[in-house]
């Protein structure tokens, strides 16, 4: 009797499983259009998977091909961004932070942030954590103090971590304290060799200080844009200097302090891949380095794959790119930044995508004088407690909302007219981001496990498909 019941149950389960497999799979999709008629909007009619047909271009999604695991998508939380957020009405600030950092409902699930170690050029003024009167020095970092970050950056980060305790945070310095530099000036200059060890201690103090505030720093870069001396603040650090600093000072200092924060080198444009490669060729420096950070103000994204292929055990990170839509047009030109940045760098091994920067005021401030960015539009424009969502917001949201940390990039063929990238999420969902940067609409198929659906994207449209 028990055997007959068991057999019946097994047969019933088999039939139900077969029926489920035969059921039509559907894809939902979220669309943004240049005319703003649809802004990251769920489309009402799902798309049915069926037998492939027609002569449309086909994006083949292959979950048997796997690439890098994603750490997340997000923005730079500059000091200026934090200042504007903290000046908002508390209830409206809380609502905004939930919209940004919660990963359900109408929220966009930002999972990665970059902060400046000391000030960036998108702070109201220049500061470090060990500022001294001219002529004084502090090699032991006895006067180190996070004080100025406690006003804006630390309170905002604490609110964000209460919403998403797993968010990853990358720290980047724009300059060492001025007394450590040859010129003693905020703009440009180089680090004095006699202060390499002191600067390593500065990093240790920063990471330990933020940890004491309940803020874990997942990774740091050595120097923002080490070949750029035009920002205020900024500091030049050539590849041999960075290798020396990592090998003899920062790496050993982290090891001695038991710090597990990742060390990411370079943090500058893709037109100089020789910079990180020269450091990674040095075994003494290489052992301390997790990977390389890149910007895309110069060069092409395939430089990331060149560095990956040369050092496949090291990670790639995309740490900055400014995306703006204040050129006088009402059009939201989203297809090109999604294609060139989100899709492009993800297809070239980057574990994250970070845009510059989270928020600015209507005058693109606050920023430093004589070298601060005067045209850096935020993903958000914050005017008092009024918030406007800009091009960079939707560019990142098409990924961050659907591709959580821990997702794995999977295979999809590269089609010239339809840039795309695919992921499998930790929950087992497939996510496909497609951009149409062309001047005409594109009809195409998406094929997965021998079934396919057909979709149409208008000129300049971007869609994220989920099944």
UniProtKB/TrEMBL annotation:
Domain Glycosyl hydrolase family 30 beta sandwich stretches: 406-464
GO biological process: glucosylceramide catabolic process
Domain Glycosyl hydrolase family 30 TIM-barrel: 71-403
Keyword DNA repair applies: no
GO CC annotation: membrane
Signal peptide coordinates: 1-23
Keyword Hydrolase: yes
Keywords for the protein's UniProt record, in alphabetical order: Glycosidase, Hydrolase, Signal
Source species, domain of life: Bacteria
A GO term, aspect molecular function: glucosylceramidase activity
Family the UniProt entry places it in: Belongs to the glycosyl hydrolase 30 family.
Protein name: Glucosylceramidase
């Amino acid at each position: 009797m028990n055997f007959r019941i068991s057999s019946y149950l097994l047969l019933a389960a088999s039939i139900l499983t077969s029926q489920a497999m035969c059921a039509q799979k559907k894809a939902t999709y979220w669309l943004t259009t240049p005319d703003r008629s649809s802004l990251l909007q769920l489309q009402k009619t799902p798309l049915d998977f069926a037998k492939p047909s027609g002569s449309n271009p086909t994006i083949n999604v292959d979950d048997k091909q796997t690439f890098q695991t994603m750490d997340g998508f997000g923005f730079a939380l500059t000091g200026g961004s934090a200042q504007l957020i903290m000046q908002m009405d508390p209830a409206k600030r809380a609502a905004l932070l939930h919209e940004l950092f919660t990963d359900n409902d109408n929220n966009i699930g930002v999972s990665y942030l970059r902060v400046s170690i000391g000030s960036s050029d998108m702070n109201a003024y220049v500061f470090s954590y060990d500022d001294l009167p001219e002529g004084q020095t502090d090699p032991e970092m006895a006067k180190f103090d996070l004080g100025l970050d406690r006003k804006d950056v630390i309170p905002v980060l604490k609110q964000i971590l209460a919403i998403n305790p797993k968010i990853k945070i990358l720290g980047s310095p724009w300059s060492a304290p001025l007394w450590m530099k040859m010129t003693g000036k905020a703009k440009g200059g180089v680090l004095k060799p006699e202060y390499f060890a002191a600067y390593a201690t500065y990093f240790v103090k920063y990471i330990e200080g933020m940890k004491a505030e309940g803020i874990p720093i997942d990774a740091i870069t050595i120097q923002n844009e080490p070949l750029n001396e035009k920002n205020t603040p900024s500091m030049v650090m050539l590849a041999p200097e960075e290798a020396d600093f990592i090998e003899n000072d920062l790496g050993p200092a982290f090891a001695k302090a038991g710090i597990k924060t990742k060390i990411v080198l370079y943090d500058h444009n893709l037109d100089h891949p020789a910079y990180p490669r020269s450091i990674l060729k040095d075994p003494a420096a290489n052992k301390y380095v997790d990977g390389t950070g890149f910007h895309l103000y110069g060069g092409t994204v395939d430089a990331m794959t060149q560095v990956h292929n040369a050092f496949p055990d090291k990670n790639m990170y995309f740490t900055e790119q400014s995306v703006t839509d204040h050129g006088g047009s009402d059009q939201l030109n989203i297809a090109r930044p999604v294609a060139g940045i989100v899709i492009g760098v993800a297809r070239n091994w980057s574990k994250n995508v970070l845009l510059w920067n989270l928020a600015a005021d209507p005058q693109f401030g606050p920023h430093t004088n004589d070298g601060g960015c005067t045209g850096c539009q935020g993903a958000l424009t914050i005017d008092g407690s009024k918030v406007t969502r800009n091009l960079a917001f939707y560019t990142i949201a098409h990924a961050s909302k659907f591709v959580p940390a821990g997702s794995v990039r999977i295979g999809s063929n590269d089609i010239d007219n339809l840039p795309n990238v695919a992921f499998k999420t930790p929950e087992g969902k497939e996510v496909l981001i497609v951009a149409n940067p062309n001047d005409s609409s594109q009809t195409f198929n998406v094929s997965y496990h021998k079934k396919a659906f057909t979709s149409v994207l208008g000129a300049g449209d971007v869609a994220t498909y989920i099944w």
